Amino acid sequence: MTQYLERRQQAMRSFVETCERKFGMTSQEFIQYYKELESHGTEEEYQWWVCLSFLGAR
User: Among residues 53, 44, 49, 54, which one has the least CA distance to residue 22?
Assistant: First the structure.
């Protein structure tokens, strides 16, 4: 079970890094941007938000 959680966390970290490159902003910049949105943004933005929440980054 521990290995599974470690793999999932690594996959989330990888996704976050991909989003940072794709959108050209750090996760901290994204958090500020996302908080100002009146909707959930795109599906990818929402997934980024969820990953950051799970990883404890926000």
Answer: 44
